[in-house]
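TA notes, week 10

Several of you asked for a full example with nothing omitted. So below is the full record: structure tokens for the whole chain, then the designed sequence directly under it. When grading your own attempts, check the secondary structure regions first.
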């Protein structure tokens, strides 16, 4: 069952914590997908602008501005990936800690 399907399950709405967690996860994924779409479109735009630059249809300054904007988006995406990995590692640590506490 995917996340959107889980929201149609009436039982999920009875637990506020589960509901909030699920909605947050959906929001994070939707933002990630949107950022990936924007990055893909910007990459295509940069390619076209590069062709325009070679044909003297845009200035080097115009190209550099768009390239800098693209670079900022890539850095933002990299940070999200790093934070996501850190979150997964933290969740694993907490899971291990909880398992160890239950065994004691």
């Amino acid at each position: 069952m995917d996340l959107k399907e889980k929201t149609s399950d009436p039982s999920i709405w009875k637990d506020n914590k589960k509901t909030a967690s699920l909605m947050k996860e959906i929001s994070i994924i939707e933002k990630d997908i949107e950022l990936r779409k924007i990055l893909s479109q910007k990459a295509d735009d940069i390619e076209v602008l590069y062709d325009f630059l070679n044909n003297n249809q845009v200035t080097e300054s115009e190209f550099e501005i768009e390239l800098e904007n693209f670079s900022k988006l890539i850095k933002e995406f990299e940070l999200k990936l790093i934070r996501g990995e850190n979150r997964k590692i933290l969740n694993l640590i907490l899971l291990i800690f909880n398992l160890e506490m239950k065994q004691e």
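The chain has three helices and no strands. Use that as a sanity check on your answer.
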